[in-house]
Amino acid sequence: MLSNWQALRLYLARKALDPGALAVFGTVWLIYSGIRALANEYGLADSSQEVLQIDRWLGAGSSPTERLQAAVYVPGDFGWIDYLAFAIHLSYFLVPFGAGIGIWFFSKYRGGSPEFVDYVAGTGVVLFGGVLINFLIPTAPPWLQARVDGDLEIVRLLPLLVADVSGDRLNGIVGADPNSRAAMPSLHVGITALVVLFLGRMRLLLGVVAMVYVVAMALSLMYLGEHYLIDLIVGSLLALLGLYAIRCGWPYQLVARIVPPVRSPAPSLEASQSDD
Questions:
Q1: Are 276 and 113 in contact (CB under 8 A)?
Q2: Is pLDDT above 50 for 60?
Q3: pLDDT tens for residues 66-96?
Q4: CB-based contacts of 119, cutoff 8 Å, min separation 6
């Protein structure tokens, strides 16, 4: 006998066969973006210096972000590593959505299996868990903290690369972050790590390829001066929390508390639940 939240999960999986379910996924991101912008104004006291100290401890005295940039970056001489890091960073704005569409087709192909609704729920756990940390531990990115910490030598490479590629036409877009204190945790890594976990559950080879991508994302974020190592670690832990929350059914249990009980789906869907 399925519990209420298990029945709700399979009911939502069946409803998600409609392409409109992809709009729900996009709405989750829009809500997250709106709440994230508020953290800059209503968050607790700035924790940038404390986070930097933790990162320096992880780097045995100096920030791993600072070390990586100092070892690779040559001022005024951009090479393939710089452009590759830039491209990997930008891919974050496409890959989670492309993965979502792919997982939706996979779920549809399997007749309404719950992979897509699990992916949406897991994404919500990571995004809103990240926003909560933004409110509790407001943290400036390394390049911004370097402006007030004379011992920290980190440059923001994104606007320099944009200017190198397109002149000054797009620099305003690069600097238009609604929250300059949201570096902790790195949701670039949190979300891409979640993609790894979900793709790995579907196909091992996909998971391996995605793992290479998330490592490349992590190195790129550090090299570009956008995140500390500790930001990436916390982002990865959020992805693990998202997967664990799905396995335990926490998002569905929360929804089940506020919606009427749903009827158990057809036996074939119950079978897909047991196979998951």
A1: yes
A2: yes
A3: 999 999 999 888 999 999 999 999 999 999 9
A4: 25, 99, 100, 103, 194, 198
Q: How far apart are the C-alpha atoms of 126 and 29, rounded to whole Å?
A: 11
Which residue type occupies 117? V
First to last CA, the chain: 16
Could you tell me the two tokens for 207? 């998971």
Collapsing DSSP to helix, strand or coil, 99 comes out as: helix
Closest CA to 195 of 103, 275, 117, 110: 103
Question: Could you tell me what percent of the chain has a pLDDT over 70?
Answer: 88
Cβ(188)–Cβ(92) below 8 Å:
yes
Show the DSSP H helices in the chain as ranges. Answer: 4-15, 21-42, 48-58, 64-72, 80-91, 95-109, 115-136, 142-145, 158-166, 171-174, 187-202, 204-223, 229-248, 250-256, 267-275
